[in-house]
Write a structure and sequence with these properties.
Length: about 240
């Protein structure tokens, strides 16, 4: 006698668990960002207060630090370099290759990323911009690099504004004249702050690209399979 099949229906808790699993990488990185950003704010506020007292001024609180040029300069100086690195990496990997690296497209064969979306079979699951076509698709097929480039430009501009404010705070404490944001952007201080971060970002990328030719991390999509030959390129 056949017994009726029992269909397990997902409970709210099951759905929540699956959602967390499906988005774990984003959630953990967002959580780490929040933790470290909070740590930066608290430690930065303490340092800022100590510096103010060292200049013969009153101790400051958290809100004073958050409103200061020092805070905004520190935040966007770092964000600027991160978004520059990622924007450049996305664009450079379109045209450039590194044989044997998991970070490169295959050298001797076509990659799925190069396929023209206009030739794809359209379904209801196809992203709307691809189905729409025209200029919408043209923007969409470069939207990742576009977003990262925009975030870089915004961060670069905010670094300049915040850096100029922090620089002027220092100038005033020494009885020196203030400068405009444009004048600050022409200073060696501004470019030193930028270049010291930019160089480290591209060093990290170069190390990852080169090391992934010979080294492995089992289970990571940033690595080739452990038994894969060194000359095999791509994930």
């Amino acid at each position: 006698m056949l017994r009726p099949a029992h269909h397990h229906q997902k409970t709210g808790e099951d759905k929540k668990r699956h959602w967390v699993k499906d988005h774990g990488l984003l959630l953990v990185n967002a959580g780490l960002f929040a933790v470290f950003f909070g740590g930066m704010i608290l430690s930065g506020a303490a340092t800022y207060s100590e510096e103010q007292q060292a200049h013969g001024q009153q101790a400051t609180g958290l809100t004073d630090f958050l409103a200061s040029g020092s805070f905004w300069e520190a935040v966007f100086e770092n964000w600027e370099s991160e978004f520059l690195q990622m924007a450049m990496y996305v664009v450079l990997t379109v045209f450039l290759f590194q044989r044997g690296s998991s970070e490169s497209k295959p050298v001797d064969k076509d990659a799925p990323q190069d396929e023209d979306p206009r030739d794809a079979k359209m379904t209801t699951k196809t992203p709307w911009p691809v189905r729409r076509g025209g200029w919408v698709l043209k923007v969409y097929e470069h939207s990742l690099s576009g977003l990262l480039a925009l975030l870089f430009l915004v961060s670069f501009s905010m670094h300049a504004v915040g850096g100029a404010a922090a620089y002027n705070e220092e100038q005033l404490s020494h009885g020196l004249p203030e400068v405009s944001t444009w004048e600050y952007m022409g200073s060696s201080q501004f470019w030193f702050e930028s270049f010291q971060n930019w160089q480290s970002e591209f060093l990290a990328v170069a190390v990852l690209v080169g090391a992934s030719v010979y080294l492995r991390e089992r289970g990571s999509p940033e690595s080739k399979p452990v038994a894969e030959p060194h000359y095999e390129t791509g994930a």
